[in-house]
Every structure is written in C-alpha cells, then in structure tokens.
Amino acid sequence: MGLENLEKSIGIEFKDKQLLTQALTHKSCKKPYNNERLEYLGDAVLDLIVGEYLYMKFPAANEGNLSKIRASLVNEKGFTKLAEALKLGEYIMISPAEENNDGRKKPSILSNAFEALIGAVYLECGLERTKELSIALIEEAYPKIDLITLFSDYKTALQELTQAKFAVTPEYSMVGASGPDHKKEFTVEVLINKKPFASAAGPSKKEAEQEAAKKTLEILKKDNG
Fold it and tell me: Are the C-beta atoms of residues 124 and 12 closer than 8 Å to each other?
C-alpha cells in the first residue's frame, strides 16, 4: 500500500521518503536497510515526550506514580494500540514468511514499527512536531490517563489511596472457597480500618484480591464525589 494515506493520517508529508520507507521495513525483508535503528531512536524520543507530558499533567504526583503511569504507556502493548489506531499493519513491509505468519498483526512488529515511525518523524520534523503528534495519538487512544485507569495493579493503587486518605493499608480476608479442586473459586473481602468495603470472587486468591481492590477503588471514588 502506498504511504500517502499514512502521511495524511499523521498530517506529515515526508520530504525524505526513504526515511519513512525505512521506518516501515521489517528486518525480515532482507533489504540493505530496516527499521531497527529508527526504532531505537523512537523509543528514546517517546520516553522523553511521555515523561515530560506526565510531569506537566500531574504536578502533584510523586516519582513512583509517574514512573508507573509511564510504564503503562511506554511498552509493547501501549505502542501496539497506537500502531493499530494508525493502521500501521497495512503499511509495514515484511517478508512472505512473516506475511503467512500473521506478521502484520504481531504486537512486537507493530510496536517496533510505531517506535520507528516516531524516530523518523523526529528526524524529519524535529522534537516539537513529534511531541504534538505523539501526545495527540496518546490522548485519542487513552481518553483518561491516571494511575487507576492505566495501572492494572489495583491493590497497589488502593494501598496508595488508603494511606493518603485514612493513613492505613487495606486488609484482605478470604471469606470463602467453592468448587472442585481443579476449578476452585475464592471469595475475598477488603477491609479498611476493620470495616468491610467490597468483596469479589476469582479463580485464585490473587485475582480475587485484585477484583475486590478494584471494586473498593470505585466505591472510594464515588464517595469523593
């Protein structure tokens, strides 16, 4: 597929067409060039852009929480989501073997191509234009950016909230287990200051605790208005 549609979707017409071609060329093509060096550059640029973006967006957040939110955005899963939004899979140049192996849908290939594209945009347009594009894509893909929404460890998020709100850590109590050994279901209850807040069931104690923590977070958020 021609790359003009991709240029239109990102709002950038490359003067150096070879740079864009290189960003979308997977190493399986066995050409004299591929996107690995641009991927390396794009990874560093995105780290800076997302780091600055979160620093400015959350002036009261501590270093630990900023790092957790950044880690939830700057990873293979996050970049794959952004690549899919741009339909990068349609433009990537891969070998016939990768084509037959569903390479256009592979998270590793999509994620690397997105990083390489950002590296190419940086070389073509500079940091400010790359920042505008990256933040626009991130905000479109993630309408709500915060620790609870992005960071799936609800127990950690709940502990940080209860320590700030009540100066205590939550307790988890297993209140039941049912089903045969090969298909057990555990029920866990969250207590804060010995007061039960929410309970949830899951196929393991850890999963039940995470779900109960998630429910408790939702309750506390409603209580805060």
Answer: yes
- Integer Cα distance of 123 and 121 in angstroms: 6
In the residue annotation, 153 being an active-site residue is answered as no
C-beta of residue 126 within 8 angstroms of C-beta of residue 18:
no
Per the annotation, the verdict on 90 as an active-site residue is no
Q: Which of 43, 98, 189, 209 is catalytic?
A: 43
Predicted confidence (pLDDT) per residue in 179-216, tens digit: 887 778 999 999 999 999 999 998 888 888 988 998 99
Q: Which of 115, 189, 209, 211 is catalytic?
A: 115
Distances in Å between the Cα of 81 and the Cα atoms of 23, 142, 164, 182 are 18, 10, 33, 35
H-state helical runs in 75-106: 76-85, 96-100
Decide: helix, strand or coil at residue 154.
helix
